[in-house]
Prior knowledge:
Blueprint: E1 13-14, E2 18-21, E3 26-38, E4 41-53, E5 63-72, E6 81-91, E7 95-105, E8 108-113, E9 116-119, E10 127-128, H1 135-138, E11 148-156, E12 162-171, E13 183-194, E14 199-210, E15 215-226, E16 232-240, H2 243-248, E17 260-270, E18 273-283, E19 290-300, E20 304-307, E21 310-312, E22 315-324, E23 334-338, E24 344-348, E25 352-361, E26 364-366, E27 369-383, E28 386-392, E29 395-404, E30 407-419, E31 431-438, E32 446-449, E33 457-458, E34 461-469, E35 473-478, E36 483-499, H3 506-511, E37 525-540, E38 553-561, E39 564-567, H4 568-574, E40 583-590, E41 596-606, E42 615-630, H5 634-642, H6 652-655, H7 664-669, E43 692-701, E44 712-714, H8 718-721, H9 729-742, E45 758-760, E46 764-774, E47 779-788, E48 793-805, E49 808-816, E50 822-830, E51 837-844
Parallel strand pairs: 44-45
Antiparallel strand pairs: 1-3, 2-3, 3-4, 4-5, 5-6, 6-7, 7-8, 7-9, 10-11, 11-12, 12-13, 13-14, 14-15, 15-16, 16-17, 17-18, 18-19, 19-22, 20-21, 21-26, 22-25, 23-24, 25-27, 26-27, 27-30, 28-29, 30-31, 30-32, 31-34, 32-33, 34-36, 35-36, 36-37, 37-38, 37-39, 38-40, 40-41, 41-42, 42-43, 43-46, ...
Amino acid sequence: xxxxxxxxxxxxxxxxxxxxxxxxxxxxxxxxxxxxxxxxxxxxxxxxxxxxxxxxxxxxxxxxxxxxxxxxxxxxxxxxxxxxxxxxxxxxxxxxxxxxxxxxxxxxxxxxxxxxxxxxxxxxxxxxxxxxxxxxxxxxxxxxxxxxxxxxxxxxxxxxxxxxxxxxxxxxxxxxxxxxxxxxxxxxxxxxxxxxxxxxxxxxxxxxxxxxxxxxxxxxxxxxxxxxxxxxxxxxxxxxxxxxxxxxxxxxxxxxxxxxxxxxxxxxxxxxxxxxxxxxxxxxxxxxxxxxxxxxxxxxxxxxxxxxxxxxxxxxxxxxxxxxxxxxxxxxxxxxxxxxxxxxxxxxxxxxxxxxxxxxxxxxxxxxxxxxxxxxxxxxxxxxxxxxxxxxxxxxxxxxxxxxxxxxxxxxxxxxxxxxxxxxxxxxxxxxxxxxxxxxxxxxxxxxxxxxxxxxxxxxxxxxxxxxxxxxxxxxxxxxxxxxxxxxxxxxxxxxxxxxxxxxxxxxxxxxxxxxxxxxxxxxxxxxxxxxxxxxxxxxxxxxxxxxxxxxxxxxxxxxxxxxxxxxxxxxxxxxxxxxxxxxxxxxxxxxxxxxxxxxxxxxxxxxxxxxxxxxxxxxxxxxxxxxxxxxxxxxxxxxxxxxxxxxxxxxxxxxxxxxxxxxxxxxxxxxxxxxxxxxxxxxxxxxxxxxxxxxxxxxxxxxxxxxxxxxxxxxxxxxxxxxxxxxxxxxxxxxxxxxxxxxxxxxxxxxxxxxxxxxxxxxxxxxxxxxxxxxxxxxxxxxxxxxxxxxxxxxxxxxxxxxxxxxxxxxxxxxxxxxxxxxxxxxxxxxxxxxxxxxxxxxxxxxxx
Length: 850
């Protein structure tokens, strides 16, 4: 044994002859083996004949020279694979070089390498990045194959706090096609971490240049810094100059639809108060619209004791939200004019919406009573032409249409609220109600709009009194089988309120575009509201008979209903339904299906609930459901017990009801930077869950069909947009698919004033699924997809198969993104050194009509 103190446990063993020259400090040994620990892996180096130069007692580095040597990370007595090299040089804790090297799987040679170089020094070192390319880049197997190269660059270890790297990505421009002209992308990234200043971050830049002259610049900046215990700055900024190029060149199914989000937040304390100042910005792939929120300001304070019987808790907030360059459906999307040549021409209108909200709350607690006192301000400005159906405030039969180049509405309100102590706490939980509210609850006390001649008009307030009760009613039933007892509980929240009749001025009705005859909010209110929660629980038998053992409880079914209100005065006045709630929602959950959540939403009225023309006609608008199943879910355990099969104890990491941020699939769809050294088509490991697991999410939404004589606008304008391409069916269908995909995350622009245009949104019916499965102990796979029932086709696919090959890992991947791009990847890499790999990549960009 040749022991090197610097190598610690990695001794050098020689099982043959050894000769050592004491004067020259050189030696020769036979049948030598040693071990090198590098990046968490142990490498075993051996050889028939070796020479070493150096003397560890003199504090110098020891150099070994090996002839006919082998290198492997397999610790079996007979390695499954190894590299055989004629010459190997190894300097202790420095470098290892071998030339040439032949990879053997068993005893079969499969690959020749000119050399192997490995830096075994600890810490970070500057060096060349490992480029990524497949065998097809060297030996093209198809005349239409487009070569590409990624990650050709260099890494700079600047100091202990800072590093940087630059890289080049390239795709051939030979035989270009529409939407795929070839491109060059330059990537730069810098990371910093300064623990003494509690600062860490990342700055990245990417420049994407296409052969057709278009380009996209992407910037990502992440910064987190703590200035003190109470002061912190957090920034996560992502920005691209061309969302169209970003979308068409992406193969990630999530990135093609997800928004490009940025956020900056600064928080500190001013005495006992907490101050927050922030910024949010969102871009949408393939669209020009930008959603920006700045400033986002809030100032909150804990309860301030002004006296032993008086507490004050003030809060203040101010937000401004902007929708810029709106590209959604509208009446007037183009401005037509005659150009300098006398030809009719058109230009797209820039449409913007600005929302400003501010609120100041000053609640006081006086003994056991609470006096809420809030002031709010809101303003909405729409810089886009719109047609309004104007009503005469004194004659509902008189209606005229007018076009406004710009519309706005400002609301100022004061909301006093009185909270009285509960009565019969723990039984009926009675709570008196006393409030001072607006006659028209959908608007503030003072209102200014484009219909009020630029001046504020006010409405009136009225006192509302009542009482509410929230008892819990339950019953116990005997159980059967593994259940000892059932508990059925219903928790209703019943409230009764009364408010006298109110009145609205003609100016206020005109500012809000209402008529006196059709407005029902001025009627006296005699309202009963009901909110119900229902839970059915089961208590399971326990095998532990000790007195301290607790029996496990599960929720068989729980249902929550939103509030439903009925006004007797309205029913008496209109001789119609007295329900005043515009919408009703239901939520369903069960522990028998971990991860199951269901919800259904209804629209109860056709028309404005405050109008006498509204009709009580329930209409289902939304359905949503999510479900997580695996081989150890509760429902399968119950079925197994029924047939007498033993069920192992469930594990929290498998029985969880929702994915955690640490899941591989959750990381795949999480927010990712838009710039920097990020691997295209990065292969993600399959979760370690044994058996199988399925995540399903279903969502359905539809809009109640409009009635009346108002202005109706169809947001589904793909057919009109692609009408010029109707002569070519292929290009016409591609245009429709692209337009639908771009508008998939678009929301309609609405106005709070009656008579504004109705935006008709096409129905959506979508199922998203994610499946993980283990075919055998070494075979595993994932399949992520979504299906659009309205379009009757799949939107995207991501299929991954993984095979563990002892020291190697093989991954087969297929991706089809919503933008039409698809890619196939074959990837086999050494676990100990993933950069040593064989891979085949085939990426195809679907032609996009611009």
